Amino acid sequence: MNLRKYFNKNVRIRFTDEEVIEGFVETYTPSIDSPDEQEEISIYKKGTKYPLIGIIESEIKSIKIL
After folding, report:
1. Domain total in the chain
2. Strand partners, 5
3. Domain CATH code at residue 39
């Protein structure tokens, strides 16, 4: 999916279950460094109890830079 291009960008992600989240991509992990062998990103969502949310590429239906 090439999630690296979203690193350090504000994005809107639509998950495969149709849930939507917006936030800042704070971290990127390539598939070679991931236990699931999938790319991963972490979204920073300000003002929430757990502001850093990890997402693997198979959970993402679509992603858009804001």
Report:
1. 1
2. none
3. 2.30.30.100
